[in-house]
Amino acid sequence: MLTYKECIPCFVRQIDEAAKLVTKDEKVQKEIIKEATELLNNIDFQMPPPQMAQNIYRMIEKKLGRQDPYYQIKKQSNAMALSLYPKLKKKVEESKDCLLASLEIAISGNIIDYGAKNSLDIEKEIDNLFKKDFSDEDKIVFQHEDFRRDLDKTNEILYLADNAGEVVFDRVLIEELSKTKKIIYAVREKPIINDALMEDALECGIDQFAEIISSGSDAPGTILNECDSRFIDIFNKARLVISKGQGNYETLSHMESQLIYFLFKAKCPVVARNAGVDVGNIVLMRNRTQG
User: Fold this and answer.
1) Structural element, H or E, at residue 184
2) Number of domains the chain contains
3) 104, 130, 146, 271 — which has fewest CB within 10 A?
């Protein structure tokens, strides 16, 4: 997916938020914003939005040294999501269709995204999950029957992680899938926004049900030429990829060589328009019609 002019205000917001998290020194905050604005003045609209975000955060790192401004936020997100885990599992166990319920829960966890929103009442939004079942209106694109058929064609799945906290919601789906499939769960190599790292996956118990690997990249998406050789080899050989979140959709929506299912909640008007859905819809979308 390309970058659009509507992405610029989102970048500006992220820059301001990251600057405030990294330092309380207003002078340094202004310097960060100034340098980031210069990057935006030379933006390549042919690149996917996560690549621009990567450039911005690399500039901040170069200026201030390796830091993880979202570290505490990620820890809080993990703790909050883990406290909900028994309730999430109960929802699956009481469902008539465990796979469908697990898919809905995994996608619902995609609200935990500080890159897409500058303020979140996660507990309130998660609470709404338990007050209703998703309707067809919520699921404009939800190709779960195709997903079931493609599941039957492979014994191994590559699952691309998105955000910390959200990992617990992924775990619910992974537990269901791991009953019959081997799961490889790929996280980011280094801190970027609130994206999941190895420590987040371990903290949330993913290692009990899947092999955890790093993509080798610090992009808030999956930019293949930024990933390490091991990940690329696994990706190229994968017969089915689960791509979680908007960042992975933005960087892989053009791919046709692998069978990919994109799972996300449309929080951004640009992504929603590209995917042919409305903001707020939950999406399970196949990247091609032939498997």
Assistant:
1) strand 182-187
2) 2
3) 130
State residue 128's pLDDT score.
61
Q: What is the pLDDT of residue 290?
A: 44
Q: Are 45 and 4 in contact (CB under 8 A)?
A: yes
Q: How confident is the model at residue 228, as a pLDDT? A: 96
Question: CA separation (Å) from 17 to 13, 32, 67, 113, 126?
Answer: 6, 11, 14, 13, 23
Boundaries of domain holding 31: 7-64
CA 261 – CA 144 distance, rounded (Å) = 10
Tell me, yes or no, whether 157 and 33 share the same domain: no
User: Which ranges of the chain have pLDDT less than 70?
Assistant: 66, 113-141, 288-291
DSSP H or E stretch at residue 182: strand 182-187
Cα 27 to Cα 11, 19, 93, 250, distances in angstroms: 20, 10, 53, 33
Q: Tell me, yes or no, whether 291 lies in a domain.
A: no
pTM: 0.90
Question: Among 37, 64, 91, where does a domain finish?
Answer: 64
- Asked if 206 and 171 touch (Cβ cutoff 8 Å), the reply is yes
pLDDT for the residue numbered 126: 61
33: number of Cβ within 10 Å: 15
With CA atoms as reference, report the closest residue to 156 among 242, 97, 227.
242
Query: Tell me, what CATH number does 108's domain have?
Result: 3.40.50.10880
CA 252 from chain center: how many Å?
12
pLDDT of residue 118: 42
pLDDT number for residue 260: 97
**Cβ pair 112, 247 in contact under 8 A:** no
